[in-house]
Amino acid sequence: MQAIKIQVKGQIDRNWSDWLASLAIDHTPRGNTVMSGVVRDQAALYGLLIQLSNLGLQLVSLTCGDTGSPDRRGGWRDVNVRY
Q: Helix, strand or coil for residue 50?
């Protein structure tokens, strides 16, 4: 299990959470969407990224962390996909 935060340009309706691996969906003041939660493994993460791509959403950032404590200092790590 891996904690993730994905930010995309534009706003996704919060009702899409179930379709997007039950991730929490929040909106930023700049009009972007941040999805956060836990995925089973890398394959599930790639599948989620493909879903977002198929929707035509532009990836802004992807951050991965430990499932035990994503808020702990150093718990999150950037995976260098910022655009």
A: helix
Q: Is residue 67 assigned to a domain?
A: no
Q: Residue 18 is encoded by which pair of tokens? A: 């179930």
Angle value at C-alpha 60, between 65 and 2, nearest 5 degrees: 20
Computed on alpha carbons and rounded to an integer, the radius of gyration of the chain in Å comes to 12
Which residues constitute the domain of residue 46?
A: 2-62
E-assigned strand segments in 14-72 = 24-27, 33-39, 59-65
pTM above 0.70, yes or no: yes
> Which pLDDT tens digit goes with each residue over 19-78?
898 999 999 999 999 999 999 999 999 999 999 999 999 999 999 987 765 454 445 555
